[in-house]
Design a protein that fits this description.
This protein has 292 residues and is of the alpha/beta class. It has 12 helices and 7 strands. It folds into 2 domains: 162 residues, Rossmann fold (3-Layer(aba) Sandwich), CATH 3.40.50; 86 residues, Alpha-Beta Plaits. Helix 1 packs across helix 2 and helix 5 runs parallel beside helix 6.
């Protein structure tokens, strides 16, 4: 049974559809997360065949996430295109100095932009919502440089609103945890390589296979893995036999040291290692003229 929307979310949904309906056609940057899924669904409703979803494929994208994005596009009924991005050929991306997301999104939006004539649509849309504003978001700086529209922000959606509408529309990702790219697991200053992102992907697969939805394997200098699991699960992963299995698997993958973070899972905590100068340069202002 779908969720009943509050009047405020109904108004924002209608505004979202109206905003998209004014566009001659859109390519939605589609990761398969809840935000881009709602934009893709709304674009499909408002524009029908004039909407499509574009997903990036690179060593920073887990294979499971790519497969899930394909399935989700089928559920939504939107045309889906997967493009290979080449951020791993960019030295500024690989050095991982806190600006990595800017270079990643610049590559993605630039690649989509070059394909727009072939795709038959003129506008790129993202899944950014109001909760993404006023924070360190290098990707939004790249989006502005490529004239990317953020219809969720324009319609006044918070993350909670997005999840509510996704549930109402019976999108299977309505409660999906955030899933940043694999490169985000590497501590700032540690160079990004395909080998390192693959290690992280396989290490997190081990955790997922043991029942965890939200977890991270943070990669630090010296091939140290800092494993974050929900606080309620820390004791289980610190106790045999699971503790030994965890160490054995991550050692097998090439990590020299394996630590379990006693503070538990905390989203985005590696951002604390990024310099204040970089954060100031890529802070995003709160959008004006939006519904709240």
């Amino acid at each position: 049974m779908s969720e009943t929307l509050t009047p405020d979310v109904v108004a924002r949904r209608d505004r979202l559809l109206a905003i998209l309906g004014t566009m001659p056609g859109v390519a939605v940057a589609f990761s398969g997360g809840v935000d881009s899924a709602v934009v893709a669904k709304a674009a499909r409703v408002a524009l029908e065949a004039r909407a499509l979803a574009v997903t990036a494929d690179s060593p920073s994208v887990p294979r499971s996430e790519l497969a899930d994005a394909r399935k989700l596009a089928e559920v939504i009924g939107i045309r889906h295109v997967v493009v290979t991005t080449e951020e791993f050929d960019n030295a500024d991306y690989l050095k991982n100095d806190g600006t990595r997301c800017y270079h990643c999104k610049s590559e993605l939006y630039g690649r989509i932009e070059s394909l727009l004539p072939t795709l038959g649509v003129p506008v790129i849309c993202s899944g950014a919502n109001l909760d993404d504003a006023g924070d360190y978001r290098p990707g939004l700086t790249a989006a502005a440089e490529h004239a990317v529209r953020h219809p969720l922000q324009e319609a006044g959606f918070t993350k909670a609103d997005v999840r509510s509408l996704a549930r109402h529309w019976a999108l299977p990702v309505w409660d999906k945890p955030a899933s940043p790219c694999l490169s985000s697991r590497l501590a700032p200053g540690l160079a990004v390589t395909a080998e390192r992102t693959l290690r992280v992907e396989l290490a997190e697969e081990f955790l997922h296979a043991r029942g965890l939805r939200e977890c991270r394997v943070r990669y630090h200098e010296g091939d140290l893995a800092r494993v974050e699991v929900p606080a309620a699960e820390v004791a289980r992963f610190a106790t045999e036999p699971l503790a030994g299995e965890l160490v054995a698997r991550l050692t097998e993958l090439g990590f020299r040291y394996v630590t379990l973070d006693l503070q538990g899972f905390r989203s985005g905590n590696l951002n604390g290692l990024i310099s204040l100068d970089v954060k100031r340069r890529y802070a995003t202002p709160t959008p004006s003229g939006t519904e709240t």
